[in-house]
Automatic annotation (TrEMBL):
<dbReference type="InterPro" id="IPR036881">
    <property type="entry name" value="Glyco_hydro_3_C_sf"/>
</dbReference>
<dbReference type="Pfam" id="PF00933">
    <property type="entry name" value="Glyco_hydro_3"/>
</dbReference>
<dbReference type="GO" id="GO:0009251">
    <property type="term" value="P:glucan catabolic process"/>
</dbReference>
<dbReference type="InterPro" id="IPR051915">
    <property type="entry name" value="Cellulose_Degrad_GH3"/>
</dbReference>
<dbReference type="Pfam" id="PF01915">
    <property type="entry name" value="Glyco_hydro_3_C"/>
</dbReference>
<dbReference type="InterPro" id="IPR017853">
    <property type="entry name" value="GH"/>
</dbReference>
<dbReference type="InterPro" id="IPR002772">
    <property type="entry name" value="Glyco_hydro_3_C"/>
</dbReference>
<dbReference type="InterPro" id="IPR036962">
    <property type="entry name" value="Glyco_hydro_3_N_sf"/>
</dbReference>
<dbReference type="InterPro" id="IPR001764">
    <property type="entry name" value="Glyco_hydro_3_N"/>
</dbReference>
<dbReference type="GO" id="GO:0008422">
    <property type="term" value="F:beta-glucosidase activity"/>
</dbReference>
<protein>
    <submittedName>
        <fullName>Uncharacterized protein</fullName>
    </submittedName>
</protein>
<feature type="domain" description="Glycoside hydrolase family 3 N-terminal">
    <location>
        <begin position="16"/>
        <end position="180"/>
    </location>
</feature>
<feature type="domain" description="Glycoside hydrolase family 3 C-terminal">
    <location>
        <begin position="217"/>
        <end position="424"/>
    </location>
</feature>
<keyword id="KW-0326">Glycosidase</keyword>
<keyword id="KW-0378">Hydrolase</keyword>
Length: 430
């Protein structure tokens, strides 16, 4: 149910006590489970919203992953901005202290989200003194205070001196934080090993990322029965690459990449889809890039086929809230224009299912590429048949947002593509 990336934290021994923090050595990291709890079940999927569900539902749907994380030695748990049945999680003593620390025996430390205690009140920060009191007494051990740290220190000190917050609560928080630091060996080796810096971006890591890309892509459409478009031939007279996301590393990486909301353009070292196409095709093949070409250009270009890469702009948190889940212009029109004039494969870059039914018929092939990150060659590995498509949908793909929420087993379950769907192709590498 819960996977901690092998090698980062280290694997816990067989006799490990659930709830204790575990870090295998100096070159490992302390893992964090978040966002506790119910963050994935908010009303309408809106960020920081209210999760409306009874206790049985909370425990059976949202809680098991945390229990599993504790069994695997997670060191910290971050509290969610969201609420459970109207109670802000950052102020929920019953779930943080009584359940997580008490019943589940979690011995690491809990941490707030960014300005999380501020948002206990509405509007945020309306009564900061109360927010500090409520958050600490709920059981949060470390507070993420990006700006008003002087006010936080002053208010917290005042609450302790006046007895509003007992010293035992402070002792508990400090004990938990020190326990994790001792587990990590920070007092013996407080600084990271600078010689490891040259490991960042090494070929071995990029090859692994590239493999992850090609295995995660989901082929949603591939021509007509008996006449598939993919894999594409590497040798062709001239091919067109189009779309806002064809030559944009920032769009491939999405949010939380270098900047909070991500960015656009060549934000880091990597390979765009256009770069990858040029590297994959035969040297005799001419590759033409036009981000949003008009119909005459496509019709008169003499193209053997086209690859169109479009999708969402980067986002995180509230900026990603959407009630329509459409891809921004000119994405849809680029698909209609290009695919209406030449055989084409559309590569959809998005962090989630989006509305695609209106242009599904226009494109010959459609690939859900999610957010492939810096290794665009993982996309072309399967487009051109070096490897086959094997990915399956991790969630249901809707026809329209009016169907949402929609899950397997619902009476109104009538998806565009069902959970687990994914066409396959054979690859030359196999």
């Amino acid at each position: 149910m819960t996977e901690l990336i092998p090698g980062l934290q280290g694997d816990v021994p067989q006799n490990f006590t659930s709830g204790m923090p575990y870090v295998a050595g100096q070159n490992k990291v302390a893992a964090c489970a978040k966002h506790f709890v119910g963050d994935g079940g908010t009303h309408d999927g809106i960020n920081e919203n209210n999760t409306i569900i009874d206790k049985q539902g909370l425990m059976s749907i949202h809680m098991p992953a945390y229990l599993d994380s504790l069994r695997k030695g997670v060191s910290t748990v971050m509290i969610s901005y969201s609420s459970w049945n109207g109670i802000k999680m950052h102020a929920n003593h019953n779930l943080i202290t009584n359940f997580l620390k008490g019943r589940l025996n979690f011995k690491g430390f809990t941490i707030s989200d960014w300005e999380g205690i501020d948002r206990i009140t509405s509007p945020a920060g309306a009564n900061y003194s109360y927010s500090v009191q409520a958050g600490i007494l709920a059981g949060i051990d470390m507070i993420m205070v990006p700006n008003n740290y002087q006010s936080f220190i002053s208010i917290l000190t005042g609450h302790v001196n006046s007895g509003v917050i007992p010293m035992s609560r402070i002792d508990d928080a400090v004990t938990r934080i020190l326990r994790v630091k001792f587990t990590m060996g920070l007092f013996e080796n407080p600084m990271p090993d600078a010689t490891l810096a040259d490991q960042l971006g090494k070929k071995e890591h990029r090859d692994l990322a590239r493999e992850a890309v090609r295995k995660s892509l989901v082929l949603l459409k591939n021509g007509k029965p008996g006449a598939p478009l993919l894999p594409l031939p590497k040798k062709a007279a001239k091919i067109l690459v189009a779309g806002t996301h064809a030559d944009n590393l920032g769009y491939q990486c999405g949010g939380w990449t270098i900047e909070w909301q991500g960015d656009t353009g060549r934000i880091t070292v990597g390979t765009t889809i256009l770069d990858a196409v040029k590297a994959a095709v035969d040297p005799s093949t001419t590759v033409v890039f036009a981000e949003n070409p008009d119909a005459d250009f496509v019709r008169n270009g003499g193209f053997s086929y086209a690859i169109v890469a479009v999708g969402e702009h980067p986002y995180t948190e509230t900026q990603g809230d959407s009630m329509n889940l459409t891809i921004p212009d000119p994405g849809p029109s680029t698909i209609q224009t290009v695919c209406g004039a030449v055989r084409c494969a559309t590569v959809l870059i998005s962090g989630r299912p989006v509305v695609i039914q209106p242009f599904l018929a226009a494109t010959d092939a459609l690939v859900a590429a999610w957010l492939p990150g810096t290794e665009g060659q993982g996309v072309t590995d399967v487009l051109f048949g070096d490897y086959g498509f094997t990915g399956k949908l991790p969630r249901t793909w809707f026809k329209s947002v009016d169907q949402l929420p929609m899950n397997v087993g619902d009476a109104h379950y009538d998806p565009l593509f069902p959970f687990g769907f994914g066409l396959t192709t054979k690859g030359n590498a196999y």
